[in-house]
Write a structure and sequence with these properties.
Largest sheet: 6 strands, mixed
Strand order of the largest sheet: 6-7-8-3-9-10
Strand content: 15-25%
Number of helices: 9
CATH class of the largest domain: Alpha Beta
CATH architecture of the largest domain: 3-Layer(aba) Sandwich
Structural class: alpha/beta
Number of domains: 2
CATH topology of the largest domain: Rossmann fold
Order of helices and strands: EEEHEEHEHHHEHEHEEHH
Distance between the termini: 31 Å
């Protein structure tokens, strides 16, 4: 496993009209790792994601990606550098086929987003890569299915495929298993592990079983601050973490999987 840092923040801070949502967060994400960001509701996890992808501008602090300060760069510039994000709500085109969804992402990656006026045949050269991505996320059999007709877990898999189409160095996954049944959770968890083989993943996730099974490192947020960091075993035994989730130090973190 590689040990170089791909992403780090230095005292990252975001304030909303006197409320400090993210408070001097210093984070290091290593290349090749699955790094989980966890914490109770309102801890500042999604705000951190919004700062990293420049949907929000920090009040203070720095963001460094591959050794380069990207704090002042825009969302499109961040994406071009290889930081690609998924969202809590599945963002696919429901009236397009699974194949077409992936092909659109490939068009964008190839600088062909505005080739809508060209014949469809001009895009066929993208199909080989699209089918490769669908096979990687176990959606090859659904290539002609409309996005709207996919089961929820498969929609999340399609979203991961479209994210992969952008050839990310760092994937930011926001609640990838939210709202899923056990079967879909298991499928998507295995998929995240599979696609992490040659890239880095930073994920916000409430399901502690998912975090425990795939995360190499975990950072725990409470009230906008990191209160613990380490492996699942380390953070699950940390009194500050147990108190943050359950309000008492003798609680069990496993019981907070949907806190």
């Amino acid at each position: 496993m590689q040990s170089e840092t791909i992403l780090e923040t230095h005292h990252l801070t975001k304030e909303f009209k006197g409320f400090v949502a993210v408070n001097a967060v210093s984070l290091k994400v290593k290349k090749g790792h699955i790094h989980a960001l966890i914490g109770p509701n309102g801890a500042g996890k999604t705000t951190c994601f919004n700062l990293l992808t420049k949907f929000l501008t920090p009040n203070a602090g720095r963001i460094v990606f591959n050794g380069q300060d990207i704090t002042q760069e825009s969302s499109p510039q961040i994406a071009l550098k290889g930081i690609i994000r998924s969202f809590q709500i599945s963002a696919i085109f429901p009236k397009l086929s699974v194949l077409e969804n992936v092909r659109i992402a490939l068009q964008r990656s190839a600088g062909m987003s505005y080739h809508f006026w060209k014949p469809q045949s001009s895009l066929y050269h993208l199909h080989e890569r699209a089918f490769e991505l669908l096979e990687q996320v176990d959606l090859l059999a659904f290539s002609q299915t409309l996005g709207a007709e996919l089961p929820y877990g498969r929609k999340r898999a399609l979203e991961i495929a479209t994210t992969l189409a952008m050839d990310p160095q760092l994937m930011l996954l926001d609640e990838p298993t939210q709202g899923m049944g056990l079967e879909d959770v298991a499928r998507v968890t295995a998929l995240i592990k599979k696609v992490s083989a040659d890239r880095t993943i930073l994920m916000v996730e409430h399901n502690m079983k998912v975090v425990a099974s795939i995360a190499d490192c975990i950072s725990v947020l409470q009230r906008g601050q990191i209160i613990a960091e380490g492996t699942y075993t380390e953070v699950s035994q940390n009194p500050l973490v147990l108190d943050a989730y359950m309000g008492r130090a003798d609680a069990h973190l496993e019981g907070a999987s949907h806190a």
